[in-house]
Amino acid sequence: MFLFGLSSRQRDCRNLASAFIGEIVAVMDVVEKHVDLHGVETGDDGAAPRRIADLQLPRFVVYEANVGKLDLFNAPLPRELSYFYTRLAALPLHLRMLQSLPAPDDERYGRQGLLDDIADTMQLGDDLLRSIKSAVAHEGPPVQSRM
C-alpha cells in the first residue's frame, strides 16, 4: 500500500529514523549540559571529577525497543547506531573511573582521556545525526502544475 508516495517499509524507516534523531539529540544534550568540559580541561573546578562522575543517562528507550528493526536502515547505519549507543552507555563508567584515579599525574591523563572520549562520542553522535537525516528526508511525489 502506498500512502503519500511511501511504502509501508519506507514509512517505518522514516518514522524510526525520526525517533532515533529525537533520542540521540536528547541524550547528547544531557551529556553536554552535565559535563563542564572547560572545568575538566583546565582542572580549575576541583569538584568537576566528582560532579561529572554522577552522570545519569536516560534509558535508551527508542534504541532498546527497536534494536530488532535496525535492518530497516541501509548499511552501515545499523552498525553506526549500535556503536554510538555502546560508546554512550560506557561514558558513565569512564567518568566514575576518573573519580577513582589516585595520583595527580594519573588524574591529568584521566582528564585528557575523558575529554577525548566525550569529544569522540559527541562527534560520533553528530555524524550519526547527519547519516540518519538522509533516512528522514523525503521528497514528496512530483507535483504537477497547470502553468
Question: Total helix count?
Answer: 6
The rough form would be described as elongated
Please indicate the count of domains.
Answer: 1
Structural class: mainly alpha
Mean pLDDT: 79
> Total number of β-strand segments?
0
- The ordered H/E elements are HHHHHH
Classified by CATH, the class is: Mainly Alpha
Please give a structural write-up.
- The protein has a single domain, classed as Four Helix Bundle (Hemerythrin (Met), subunit A).
- The chain has 6 helices and no strands.
- The chain is 68% helix and 0% strand.
- The protein has 147 residues and is mainly α.
- Helix 1 (8-34) packs antiparallel against helix 6 and helix 5 (77-99) runs antiparallel to helix 6 (104-136).
Summarize the structure.
This protein has helices at 8-34, 37-42, 48-52, 61-66, 77-99, 104-136. The protein is mostly helical.
Topology:
Blueprint: H1 8-34, H2 37-42, H3 48-52, H4 61-66, H5 77-99, H6 104-136
Helix pairs in contact: 1-6, 5-6
Please supply descriptive tags for the structure shown above.
147 residues, mainly alpha, Four Helix Bundle (Hemerythrin (Met), subunit A), 6 helices, 68% helix
